[in-house]
Please model this.
Amino acid sequence: MNAEQLKQLEDDLWSAADNLRANSDLKSSEYATPVLGLIFLKFADNKYKRAEAAITKEHAALQGTRREKPISEIAIEKCGFYLPDHARYKYLLELPEKEDLAKKIKQAMEAVEEYKPELDGILPKDEYVALTRTSNTLLAELLKNFSNIPADANGDIFGKIYEFFLGKFALSEGQKGGEFFTPTSVVKLMVEIIEPHHGTVYDPACGSAGMFVQSQQFVERHRKKLDELGKAHDEDQLYVYGQEKTLDTVKLAKMNLAVNGLRGEIRQANSYTENPFDGFGKFDFVMANPPFNVDDVPLASVEDDPRFNTYGLPRKKTKVKASEKGKETVPNANYLWINLFATSLKDSTPDSGRAALVMANSASDARHSEADIRQTLIENNLIYGVLTMPSNMFYTVTLPATLWFFDKNKQDDRILFIDARNIFSVIDKAHREFSEEQVQNIAIISKLHKGKRADLIRLIDSYFRSGMEQLLDNLEKVEPVSEQLLDVLDDTQGKQAVGELVSQWQGLKALQQASDAYFQTADLHLTTSEAIEAANRAQRELRATFDPFFQQLHTGLKQLDKVVRQHEKARVEEARQAGKRTTTDRNARRLKDALEELHKEVRSAEAYYQHIHWLQERFPNAEYEDVTGLCKLATPEEVKEQDCSLNPGRYVGVVIEEDGKTEEEFLSDLSEMNIQLRELSRMADALTRDIVSSLDELCGDDA
Model:
């Protein structure tokens, strides 16, 4: 299943699930958990189905022997689940209408829990009754729609669907939903920077366990890369530890671990007062998105706890009154969390001892006792880096948040600052995210800082490969779209503009030959500096061959835009002279749709090469360097000069981006827009006259 098919499946499934809210009196909180439960059940059934033949075969072979086992025991060994007949998805799907479907699903969930003790009491059961409150068919429809999930969909696909649903529920629930979901792209970036290859991962505010899922997926991607390079790697999985104060969210997290096949423990606990894993100095990696700016934590509950006081406690700046002695609260819990992450990491462990946390921007410059804690952390050389994110990345916080990174095995005493406020993709008017490529582009800054120059070469290589695949795919679409244009643009100028654009696309053949030559000689093992520098030169030369191609495409499209506008203007004038209304006709709409399709193809084709440009312009020698407005390695002296502020904006500086246009090009574009504005204004006036005339006729007014 490719990315486009997965996206379509996710959208279809969400549409089916959201139908519950549209056609019932259910609140988001009422249908989120049961819907996720059905996704889990479908996953369990798919996984069981793939192992069923082997389970049955082994059970038959052992029957009557000393090694005879219950079929349930064999099933758990083979796939992690045992599903009796009444817990199978097909059984539920084919139940007669007269059956109590909510009751049958509850029995199925109970059967899953019976044979998988770690899920005991976790799966939704009684919640399905609410789904039948206003309709007897909604639950059956939901089961039917979820049956569209392919039978061969693996745990990775299910994990993506599950995370997609969590994000959608968080978006629809607003503040409440955000409590258990951190946007996937943010988590991916955190994981890519701290690189949890192995060992234990701890999240003291684990929500729905998204940090753990992305950590496991990082491990799988890492192993795949090592396999491609012929390098050995550790096969051990991560073991995860999470705690969360809300029971319903704990249940979601445990379901998420089961969906993704993760090993670990999730416990209900308040991290301020409970330490269920005895976590001081215990974990290889720590990741979390804790609650911001909590101000009601009793000081007495944390002041004697080394998890929170090792680097200093946040205290109120004024002396507490005698009458309030013993009732004092921490002014802001942000630095309690910061302490917790630092103290939970193992000491002096090779290739681990790293943490990533989401933190309020205000923590970077907090004053008084918090500034003292921050200074202590800096003096102990624990802070690896700080990254400022764009605003509107979270469903519950509109202002930009910050990512803090700790490393107990830093190789120098500098701090890496990254300002990523201008790097994002738009989801809708109110929400943003990092694209997969943007995650990799930001993370490569950290990898270059660590001396992993080969990772940049391999990343750019992957963009070249993906870009060429996209171009070849787009080439197949250009001809039919061009024919649609020619059906309408039947004049000489139109035919010439379309013909030139098609001819420009033929230049792709030479570029494909250049790419093939590069791929044939590329050696991505890159074990020496000389090999890295040679590969960097080859990549820069290859990218340069693509620049004229895209410039010509843009010039051709610009000319075609002009021709289309002239064509539309001529049709409007013809209609005016004929005394007809100047509405957009069907041919004009077809023309605009076809032209937009061509623009879309060029944008998608060029995207990967724009990422290559972005990286090569900022890191031309395939090695880390400070980039104004983006990143800066600050020395302890520079940080001290800024009063130990950890605000990246103080260090990276600001760059004013140029649009790359000459004065003549700018004036030409401005003139074109002015012509368009005048034409649109004239059309608006004509439409206004038509509307007024029609209303006068209807109302019998003579005015």
